[in-house]
Each structure stands twice: as C-alpha cells, then as structure tokens.
Amino acid sequence: MSTHTRTLIRGGLVITAADETHADVLIEDSRIVALAAHGSDVAEGWTADRTIDATGKYVIPGGVDAHTHMELPFGGTFASDTFETGTRAAAWGGTTTIVDFAVQSPGQALRQGLDAWYAKADGVCAIDYAFHMIVADVNEHTLKEMDLLVQEGITSFKLFMAYPGVFYSDDGKILRAMQRASHNGGLIMMHAENGIAIDVLVEQALAAGRTDPRYHGEVRKVLLEAEATHRAIQLARVADAPLYVVHVSAEEAVAELAAARDKGLPVFGETCPQYLFLSTDNLAEPDFEGSKYVCSTPLRPREHQEALWRGLRTNDLQVVSTDHCPFCFSGQKELGRGDFSKIPNGLPGVENRMDLLHQAVVEGRLTRRRWIEIACASPARMFGLYPRKGTIAPGADADVVIYDPAAEQTVSAETHHMNVDYSAYEGKRITGQVETVLSRGELVIDRRKFTGRAGHGQYTPRSTCQYLT
SS3 of 386, please? Predict the structure, then answer.
C-alpha cells in the first residue's frame, strides 16, 4: 500500500444519527478528515488518488454489531462462522466493526478465556473487532480480573440467568459482579431468562412427548424473560450499577426496561432482527424446519413485534445487534431431532442486519437517522467506540458504506456469504443494498466485489460506556 492515500466520496447523501447532508467526504489514509457541501468551493477544490461517485446513494457509517458469537462452542458443536468467514460476511452486509464474546469456562481465569479469543481472531478478520467478556464463574479471583480487563479495553461483562450448569450465575454472583462493575466502570450485559424455571418446563415437555422445535419457544415463557429482566434491574439498583439487557424479545420485558428508564435508571436494552421480523410461526414450520429458528431468548408470537418497534422509536430499546451465532441445519441443528433441548441455540444474521433495518425505513417504521443511530452510533457509544466508530465526522475512522437505497434484492442462502447452509430470511425481498464498503480507508467491498483481506481487521480496545455520567 502506498504511504499516503486520499479518497474522495462525491455526491452522496451523508446520513448520521444526527444529520442528513448532501456532502462530499475526504479521507486521508485511514481517517475521515473533512466534509464539505457538495458543489461548494471547498469540495470542488479537493483532489484525491481515488474518487468514488456516490450520486443517488447514501453515504453512511459502517455498522457496529455489538453482539456476535464467531466459533462459539455450544451444545457439543461450534458456531459455523469463523472470525474469517464471519467478518467477511459482516463486511458484505455493511458492518465494519463487531464486538464478539470471549468466554470464560468455569474453573478458568478470565484471562485464559480472553487469550483464547484473541488467538482465534488474530490475523484473520476482514474488519475491526473488539471483545466483551462472558463471566461464567464469579469468584474473588475473577472479580479482581474484571478491574484489569476494564483497563485493557474490555469494558463489558456478560452474565447469564439462563443455562444452569453451563453459563448460569445465581443472584448472589450477579450482585457481586454488578457491585464490581459499579466501581470499575464496566457495563454488565445480562441474558435475562429464568433458566432454573425453564429447565423444569423443558423436562416436563420432553416427558410428555413434546419434542418438536416449537416447544423450545413454549417452555421459554415470556413471563420468565420479564421476571428475569425485572430481577436484573433490581439487582443493578442494589449494586448501583448500569445494566444492558441483551436480545430483548418480549413486550413484557420491554415494559420492565421502560419503567426503569422512566425512573432515570441507567438501564439499556438491545433487540435483534429475528425478533423484529420472525415469530413462533417460523419455529412451528414442519419437517424439523423450525429448528433453524431456535435461539434464546426465543422467537415470540407476532404480536410482540409491535412493542419492539415502538421501543426502538421511543428509545426504550437503544441498539439492534444480531446475536449472530450460526449452526448449519445439516449436522448441527439436526442434533436436536427428537429433543428440542439439544438443538444448538442460534441464528445467522450478521450479513442481514443493515439491510433489514433499511427495509424498516422503507416501510416507515424508522427514520433514516434512527436506522443509523440503532445500528451504528448507539452501539458505538454504548461500548466505548465512539466517535472513532459509528459516525462520519473529521477524525473518525474511515469506516464508510456507500448504500444504494433503490437496489432490490432477495435474501437467500444461495447468495449470502455467511458459512451456514440456510438463511433465516430466505426469500425475503428487500429494497436497499450495500454497494461499496471502506474499512479504515481500505476498500473491502468495491461495487459488490470483495476486495478485502483476512488480517486487515484490527483489535480495537474500548473505553467505558459513553451513556453514563
């Protein structure tokens, strides 16, 4: 690569969470250096090594997907996307930063888990990446390690009220971790489902011969998500700690978050495209097809979707991430034939998020700026990456997407780039498509051709949550 590269993006509509402006964007090497009104004397005076014509297109920040699971071990198998295939697929979908989850195994130090994830991702990512830490074993040692990790740029910690025997933490352990976070500036992320109660319902369903995928949704009851969300909020209040609830799927859980936020509490919520666009109708698909849609929290009856969209509009939900955790139908999802509890939990989606949310703009559910806010700016702020990531402004990394709002596409496993043998959105027609993607000024997708490379993506340490005073 030459020592100095200037890139000029001309003629597009620049959309950030705050503004929409017809502006040209000047990039030097890896950073955005200036914006100027299209046709202005300033913009007309710019020269560059490479000029990209964005006339009639949107110029948007690269997406920030703050919840992915590449190569995650789960239920005796592994998520089918590696950091190489998963980050390449993310780029195709206009996402230029992922925050993945390093996993502590019970009995291990946090450091061991983190080092294992550094090793998986090192030198293979097509886009930039960061890590959260899953804490599976809260004890005096791991509490001390949390302080060290915050200093290292791992500023968020995920705990589970679900999955007894695997990731589960009881209320006492959760409270201890929250107390620690309240002192070290970390953000606790919570998988809020009452796993102890769910296990009873799973056992009873299987004993009664209810083994099909749809029962995965029936036993993981809405009330058990709402109850756990409520309990997590109260524990966070006791600890005087901020809380971020992941993959919110149920209307009653949104209501718990809204009530807490109305009290002025530092409580945040994320939802995912699967809860906005899919439902228990998918889980009930015949011939074990429903297994493709098994994830936790589970898909809900369609009537919950409206509450999630409303939560995104009213900012009771701040972020849309994917919880991308793909397992192939053939040989992986099939592990649960005859026993829904053995179906690996997770859906592919890292490539589809930006497009699905643009479709919501087309349908009038979101404004263009809100699209960028929930997909780029808010996740970057929530997890200490802003303003390097999540916006188009002087000084920001040149993570820029040229988006064609008029292009039409049909989502399909035939054409996607995720390493999985099905699409959760097979056959869905979408208006809008990613045309060109720059990551730190380097072309990764050039007019619908992949020009990136494994190893371009850099590990990105994070500051603490930028929504906290």
Answer: coil
User: Which helix (H) or strand (E) element contains residue 47?
Assistant: none
| Interatomic CA distance for residues 7 and 220, integer angstroms | 50
**pLDDT per residue over 436-454, tens digit each?**
999 999 999 999 999 999 9
Alpha helices in 19-104 (DSSP H): 41-44, 83-92
What does the alpha-carbon distance between residue 16 and residue 446 come to, in Å, rounded to a whole number?
22
CB 159 within 8 A of CB 174: yes
Q: Cite the DSSP H helix spans in 376-454.
A: 378-382
DSSP assignment letter at 369: H
The predicted model gives 144-154 an average pLDDT of 98
Place of tokens 């915050």: 150
Q: Which amino acid is at 427?
A: G
* CB-based contact 304:272 (threshold 8 Å): no
- Only one residue has tokens 């060109």, namely 436
Cis peptide before 213 (omega within 30 of 0): no
H or E element, residue 226: helix 222-239
Which letter does DSSP use for residue 341 in this model? G
Q: 107 — alpha (psi -120 to 50), left (phi > 0) or beta?
A: left
Single-letter code of the amino acid located at 440: R
The pLDDT value recorded for residue 75 is: 82
Instruction: Report residue 15 as tokens.
Output: 């959309």
CA 10/CA 385 separation, integer angstroms: 26
Which two structure tokens, joined as six digits, stand for 425?
């959105």
- Give the tens place of pLDDT for each residue, 341-352: 999 999 999 999
Q: Nearest-CA neighbor of 136 among 79, 72, 85?
A: 72
Q: Do the beta carbons of residue 39 and residue 28 sit within 8 Å? A: no
pLDDT at 2 over 70: no
Number of Cβ within a 10 Å radius of residue 173? 18
* pLDDT mean over 233-257: 98
Torsion of CA 360, 251, 209, 213, to 10 degrees: 20
Residue 216 pLDDT > 80, yes or no? Answer: yes
Distances (CA, A) of 404 to 25, 185, 338: 17, 40, 44
81 Cα distance to chain centroid: 15
Per-residue tokens: 107 = 């009995």
Q: Which two tokens stand for residue 300?
A: 């809900």
- Reported as a pLDDT band with limits 50, 70 and 90, residue 3 is low
CA 9 and chain centroid, separation = 27
Residues in Cβ contact with 469 at an 8 Å cutoff, skipping those fewer than 6 apart = none
